[in-house]
Design goal:
The protein has 466 residues and is of the alpha/beta class. The chain has 21 helices and 17 strands. Helix 3 crosses helix 4, helix 7 (108-119) packs antiparallel against helix 16 and helix 9 packs across helix 10. The two termini are 41 Å apart. Bound molecules: pyridoxal-5'-phosphate (PLP).
């Protein structure tokens, strides 16, 4: 058929829109969206035909221009366009706080409370007892105080913004003394020195990359000094010929010169996890050294929503709540809803380890992980038969998210190989599955690390492989 005749067969948009299968979409998604999508589908058909050579036009399948077929294409396109950009994914990498995969998955109660509180109105800034305006700061302050032993607390948008407001309230126009070994990049081009400068504080670097003594801080103190600051080495280790000042030494120095000491702890670990190979400072223990103000993330080892928690002496926290930046970095009701439920778990350490996914994954028993890997291998065999070879292998999982970089958690994975597909193509196909499965490649094997795969996701991983 020649091109002109083919073009004439393209159905009119009005005819397509009258097709029965599209009616439901009109109702649910609105006529503007459906009409625009149909127009797009018809336009691309026209373009496709115009681009044909005479030879190819002869072979063109005109059946696909039938009204019902075009309507089907419109429906396919509607589903495609309607898909969210932000979707769930399965983390089979064994890295628990995977920043690219959204850091901490939330506990069930946190998720349910987000829906409950945001579906309707709430008392976000309303004191129902007094019948007048309340403060959103009060929602989690007392709980954080109860759990950490701090005088006062504040929740902001993330730990980066916590750094901003802490320095702005405590050291703007003054010098803040920090070790050269701690002036680091956290990731995504977020550098501690840049943030400090933005806050209006002047950075005063002391010591060297590998060694900073308490005397280095002391020698740098002058009439312009506003604060002493320590930044936890979250995402790197300095090994070998090293020295750093301890929190206790800094607190003593701060007392001697009447200067506040700030500790950017980063990871927000609330309980002692050394029994599980995680030798990191925790919030209550660090605070007990006498630090004036401490800050950490809500979605790293704390296991909650994105947030920055600031704890410390009442006079400083009060000043931060009044600082104009507080409004710019304030937290939404959904974050408060998730954070309150997450924090409540910490009233009992056993409950926290059981219910907060991040802690549960860190403390997972190796024998249990092996049994889980066996269940995954069985599910894959049931779905895929002999098409794939599966084998259980031992792996070293990681904390991730710029936390505890040297810690390796002994775990188990299912290694998958295929006679017909390369490891790379398997990895790519899993990643592009409608529920993306993010796997790891090691020694040309596709590894599905079970520590970070939830029990109810095992069957889904097997289906994805099929
Ligand atoms: C992660 C981290 C930050 C940044 O925290 P976000 O919550 O990602 O903004 C700042 N300081 C330290 C030490 C960190 O580990």
């Amino acid at each position: 058929m020649n091109k002109k005749d083919i073009l004439r067969r393209i159905p009119k948009i009005d005819e397509v829109l009258q097709q029965q299968p599209l009616f439901d979409f009109f109702e649910e998604k609105g006529s503007a969206f459906v009409t625009d999508t149909a127009r797009g589908v018809i336009d691309s058909l026209r373009k496709e035909i115009l681009a044909l050579t005479d030879e190819l036009a002869e072979d063109f399948d005109v059946d696909k221009l039938a009204i019902n077929r075009v309507a089907e294409s419109v429906i396919d396109k509607l589903y495609e366009e309607d898909r969210n950009n932000l979707i769930p994914a399965i983390n089979a990498t064994g890295t628990i706080l995977h920043t690219n995969l959204g850091r901490a998955p939330l506990c069930r109660e946190a998720v349910e409370n987000i829906a409950k509180v945001s579906r309707s109105y709430s008392n976000l800034e309303y004191d129902v007892k007094a019948g007048k305006r309340g403060s959103r700061h009060d929602i989690v302050s007392s709980l954080i105080v109860e759990l950490t032993g701090a005088e006062d607390a504040m929740l902001v948008n993330n730990n980066a913004s916590a750094t901003m407001i802490v320095l702005s309230a405590m050291a703007a126009g003054k010098e803040c003394i920090v070790s050269r070994g701690e002036l680091v990049e956290i990731g995504g081009a977020f550098r501690i020195p840049d943030i400090m400068e933005q806050s209006g504080a002047t950075l005063r670097e002391v010591g060297t990359t590998n060694k900073t003594k308490i005397s280095d801080y002391e020698n740098a103190i002058n009439e312009n000094t506003g604060a002493l600051m320590k930044v936890h080495k979250s995402n790197y280790d300095i090994v070998g010929f090293t020295e750093e000042a301890t929190l206790e030494e800094l607190v003593a120095l701060g007392k001697k010169y009447d200067l506040p000491v700030i500790y950017d702890m980063g990871n927000g670990l609330m309980v002692d996890m050394s029994a599980y190979g995680l030798d990191e400072p925790n919030v209550p223990a660090s605070l007990a050294t006498g630090i004036d103000v401490m800050l950490f993330s809500g979605d790293k080892l704390l296991g909650g929503p994105q947030g920055g928690i600031i704890v410390g002496t009442e006079k400083y926290i009060k000043a931060m709540k009044k600082n104009p930046l507080a409004r710019a970095i304030r937290v939404d009701k959904m974050t408060f809803a998730a954070m309150e439920e997450t924090l409540k778990k910490y009233r009992d350490e056993k409950v926290a380890l059981r219910d907060i996914p991040v802690l549960n994954m860190i403390s997972a028993d190796k024998a249990d992980l092996k049994a889980k890997a066996e269940r995954l291998a069985d599910a894959i065999k049931a779905e895929c038969g002999d098409a794939l070879k599966v084998e259980l292998v031992e792996v070293e999982d990681q904390i991730g998210g710029g936390s505890a970089p040297s810690v390796r958690l002994p775990g188990w994975a299912v290694a998958v190989t295929s006679d017909t597909a390369t490891t790379k193509s398997l990895e790519r196909k899993l990643r592009k599955y409608e529920l993306p499965v993010i796997a790891r490649i090691q020694y040309d094997q596709l590894l599905l690390c079970v520590r970070t795969i939830a029990e109810d996701e095992l069957a889904e991983v097997a289906r994805a492989l099929k």
